[in-house]
Amino acid sequence: MRTAFGESFDVPDGYLNSASVGIPPVRVTEAVLESVRRWGSGRCSPPEFDAPVATARAAFAELVGVGADRVAIGTAVSQLLGPIAAAVPDGARVVVAEGEFTSVSFPFAVQAGRGVTVTEAPPARLVEAAAEADVVAVSVVQSADGRVADLDGLREVRETHGTLVVLDVTQAAGWLPLSLAWADVVAGGGYKWLLAPRGTAWMALRPEVEAVPHLAGWYASEDPWKGVYGLPPNLASDARAFDVSPAWTCQVGAAGTLPWLAGLDMAAVHSHCAGLADALRMAVGMAPTGSAIVSVGAPGAIDRLTTAGVAASARAGGARLAFGLYNTADDLDRAVDALV
């Protein structure tokens, strides 16, 4: 058991895998377990989950710098981006980062039958390529190696060229300070750095984004509890029109972690996480980058880390290590000892 930023975590020594699965505070685990126990004993009532849904929605909005009325809920990033990709015009030119996570690129790539083209650009040329595209879709922090996108450059492209900017914050929100009200679409999954259960995701939309909520169901209604039968569809007038029916118990967990994260000094969280990651980079002869995710390409790195009791992931030919807010100098030393 360890403590960090005012919370207790049951994180094992050497756990450097938050980029795959984030570990929640102990109190959040208990809240989810209690929700499951209530379900298992027939004591839960569906409307009681509206409060955690609203709480998590508002906290995600705060984490990315928008109003809660701009945020839709879902269970996965690709699910939320599907209607956005389906709304781009026939023949639209979409650019993504080379090696982009497929939950970002696939929703657009499957629109090829309408003449939509998706081009991969080297990260260093992404802003340049975006200036010549109709849409740019990119992770704020790349999953494979932790590279941070040039957000200032993308914002300028949007303002100058009108390119639709779609951002995935799954590997960024929770450790990187974000202010993304300028972006057209901001989506993120909850089970990594937001330390929520898998089955939680959110998407922030600028009001002028035009898309059809193809996945609309009862929870997308203006009043969900009055919209479960009949037509016409009286959808919500804000981003809730894109809501997908929530995974209830998962939202209980999200309501425990996201408001806590939103209340932290995110600059301090970033300094802690990226500071540990940069210390590892320097120990193995790499330049610091300010990202909490490190990819080490040395031969046998993942095997050496595993033998040393370090939990990391094999990604894109390297060993990916992710330093969360609950990680310590002891975790760093264990990784360095295994790699150097």
In a nutshell, what does this entry contain?
This protein is 34% helix and 15% strand. The chain is an alpha/beta fold and 340 residues long.
Notes on the structure:
This is Aminotransferase class V. By secondary structure, the protein is an alpha/beta fold. The chain folds into 2 domains: 99 residues, Aspartate Aminotransferase, domain 1; 217 residues, Type I PLP-dependent aspartate aminotransferase-like (Major domain) (Aspartate Aminotransferase, domain 2), CATH 3.40.640. 34% of the residues lie in helices and 15% in strands. It contains 10 helices and 12 strands. It has a 7-stranded mixed sheet with strand order 3-9-8-7-6-4-5, with helices on both faces. The longest helix has 18 residues. The chain is globular. The model has no long low-confidence stretch (mean pLDDT 98).
Task: Indicate the CATH architecture of the largest domain.
Answer: 3-Layer(aba) Sandwich
Question: What is the name of the CATH topology of the largest domain?
Answer: Aspartate Aminotransferase, domain 2
**Total domains, how many?**
2
- Calculate the terminal CA-CA distance, rounded to whole Å: 28 Å
State the order of secondary-structure elements, H for helix, E for strand. EEHHEHEHEHEHEEEHHEHEEH
As residue ranges, the low-confidence spans are none
For the report, how would you describe the main beta sheet?
7 strands, mixed
Sheet with most strands: strand arrangement: 3-9-8-7-6-4-5
- Just give the CATH class of the largest domain: Alpha Beta
